[in-house]
Amino acid sequence: MYQSCIKISENDIEVNDVSALNRLLRQLNPDSLDIGFKNFSDIMQTSTIITLRDTNKDNVLVGMGMLLAIRKLYYSFGSIEEVVVDKSYRGLGLGKAIVKRLVNRGRYLGMKYIALTSSPDKIVANKLYQSIGFKIPRTNLYRFYY
Ligand SMILES: CC(C)(COP(=O)(O)OP(=O)(O)OC[C@H]1O[C@@H](n2cnc3c(N)ncnc32)[C@H](O)[C@@H]1OP(=O)(O)O)[C@@H](O)C(=O)NCCC(=O)NCCS
Q1: What is the mean pLDDT of residues 64-83?
Q2: pLDDT over 70 at 1, yes or no
Q3: Could you tell me what percent of the chain has a pLDDT over 70?
Q4: Measured from the CB, is residue 23 less than 6 Å from ligand 1?
Q5: Residues 57-69: pLDDT tens digits?
Q6: Residues 6+ apart with CB under 8 A from 63
Q7: Among 22, 21, 12, 20, CA closest to 44
Q8: How far does residue 122's CA lie from ligand 1's centre (Å)?
Q9: Which value, to the nearest 10 degrees, does the dihedral of the CA atoms of residues 46, 28, 63, 127 take?
Q10: Which residues have CB under 8 Å from 130's CB, separation 6+?
Q11: From the CA of 84, how far away is ligand 1's center (Å)?
C-alpha cells in the first residue's frame, strides 16, 4: 500500500539532495560512481526525474526514476531509467507508483511509446513492469559497444 507520508514530485532536485540520490543509485548498481548536481540539472532540462520523499522523516529521499525524452523525426518516445526504491521502503507499492507516474508523464507529452530494459534476474522489477502493461517487443535489439 502506497503510504500517505510519501510525497511524489517531478524535477524537484536541489544540490543538497545529491548525496542521497547517489546512495539510492548505489542500491541499483553498487559500482556506480557518484554524480554531481549538474548531471541531474541537465537531465531535468529535457526530461523528467521523479523523486519520492518521506515527509515523516525530514523529506528524506526514498525513491527515484527517470523518463528520458527522445525526439525522432516523426514522433518522440521515452526511455525509463534508474528506477530504484530504498531497501527499507520496498514492497509498499512505491516502485509501481514511480513507474505509473512516468508512464502518465509520457502520455501527457504525446510520446508514442516508452522503452526500458531490465535484466531477467531482476524478478520484482520485471513483475512490476509487466503488471503495468509493458510488453517484450518482437524485435532484434542491437547495440554497438565502445
Ligand atoms: C524494482 C523496485 C523498484 C520495486 O520497487 P517496490 O516499491 O519494492 O515495488 P512495489 O511494491 O511497487 O511492487 C511492484 C510489484 O512487484 C511485486 N513485488 C514486490 N515485492 C516483491 C517480492 N519481494 N517478490 C516478488 N514480487 C514482489 C508486487 O507484488 C508488485 O506487483 P503487484 O502490485 O502487481 O502485485 C525495487 O525492488 C528496487 O529498487 N530494486 C532494486 C533496483 C532495481 O532493480 N531497479 C529496477 C531496475 S530495471
Answers
A1: 98
A2: no
A3: 99
A4: no
A5: 999 999 999 999 9
A6: 24, 50, 51, 52, 84, 85, 86, 89, 94, 95, 98
A7: 12
A8: 9
A9: 100
A10: none
A11: 9
